[in-house]
Amino acid sequence: MRIKLLISIILFFCSSWHNVVSANNALASENLLTIFDQLQQEKVEEVIISLPIDSLILNKNTTKSFKGTFTYWDQNGKEYNKIVKVKTRGKSRRIHCEFPPLRLSFSKEDLQYHGLKPKHRSLKLVTHCNFLESANDNILKEYLAYKIYNEITENSLQVQLLKIKYIDSDTNKELVYYGFLLEDIDALAERIGGSELNTYGRMLSDFEPNNTDKFTLFQFMIGNDDWYVPQRRNLRYIHLENQQDLLIPYDFDMTGLVAVEYARPNVSLGLRSITQRLFMGDFVNSSRRNKTIKYFQSKRKDIIQLVNDCKLLSESEQRYVKDYLLSFYEIIGDPFLRARAFPTGKRQPKMTALDGTMKIM
User: Fold this and answer.
1) Which of 78, 110, 166, 247 could pair with 175 in a Cys bridge, judged by C-beta atoms 3.0 to 4.6 Å apart?
2) Which helix (H) or strand (E) holds 329?
3) Residue 80, domain extent
4) What is the full per-residue pLDDT of the chain (361 aa) written as tens digits?
């Protein structure tokens, strides 16, 4: 009897100890950095990606993945070599781009070995589309679009700009272009205390009003009509407990701000130029409209400074981006123009001129 009691006590303490250890390990794992976090924390600016480039491009319309290495250095000069699986991604860019956007999947075991969180290990890499002189400028302009939305709200995808040396592992041929990594959507959801909703069919009015007001005015700001809430086109839904859900935008190549070579206006909306703007949101009253506009006006100096600080952008494109943003601020700064561009109630918004400006008629 005593022996059975002693065994029961021992088993109880062993089980309790196991639960404590498991809980501590889980907590420790949650406190680790993701690979994206580390790249940001170490301010990594240059990387080398080695992979069979020619084979990748030949298979850009397939789901085939290729083994590669991802090399970077921390601020102390320590070199890291990560094994990655690389495959192409995207829809329109696969069609239009000679060099398609990529998805990099890091090894779970390798991340754990280096003391990094094994979650959120699959990252989107936005790459140069072609080999024209404008390739880097287009990347930098889209990167700026993400940084502008970061300035507007923390409920946005973080990005890490990189100068990338691509080495073809079969031929040793080298390419050097800029690109940027996107924060994993689940990592963003976790960061703001929510989770991604993998459903469709939601409407703009289903989401938190402050979020949708900023979301839609930002899309007008950068001249983006390439989004649609019910189909989750170029956006994601994030669910927050005891709060209304959020919209998270991404993919800004088809905007007036970036204006890539293959971009075409949405003729179904009556647009005739990629730089033309049309508000696709819904300010239910003038109070909400004016509150959102006032907030954007408070961000004007910081947003223009983002453009000024982007020294990698060519002077002509830097001037173009700044002028395009300033034309937005001209519209929201004029009571008559903003009433035409962002009417309340059932009135339809007026589209801008072909260059994104709006004149007093």
Assistant:
1) 166
2) helix 315-333
3) 35-127+156-185
4) 566 665 666 665 555 555 544 444 444 456 899 999 999 999 999 999 999 999 999 999 999 999 999 999 999 999 999 999 999 999 889 999 999 999 999 999 999 998 999 999 999 999 999 998 899 999 999 999 999 999 999 999 999 999 999 999 999 999 999 999 999 999 999 999 999 999 999 999 999 999 999 999 999 999 999 999 999 999 999 999 989 999 999 999 999 999 999 999 999 999 999 999 999 999 999 999 999 999 999 999 999 999 999 999 999 999 999 999 999 999 999 999 999 999 998 889 999 999 999 986 5
310: closest CA among 142, 165, 164?
142
Would you state the structure tokens that stand for residue 318, as one six-digit string? 């830097």
Look at residue 86 and give its three-state secondary structure: strand
> Measuring CA to CA, how many Å separate 220 from each of 93, 229, 296?
22, 15, 12
Say whether both 209 and 178 belong to one domain.
Answer: no
Q: What pTM did the predictor assign?
A: 0.91
118 and 247 co-located in one domain = no
Which position has the token pair 């080695």?
Answer: 50
- 140 assigned to some structural domain: no
Residues 199 and 84 in one domain: no
Q: What are phi and psi of 356, to 5 degrees?
A: 90, 0
Distances (CA, A) of 139 to 56, 242, 325: 20, 38, 17
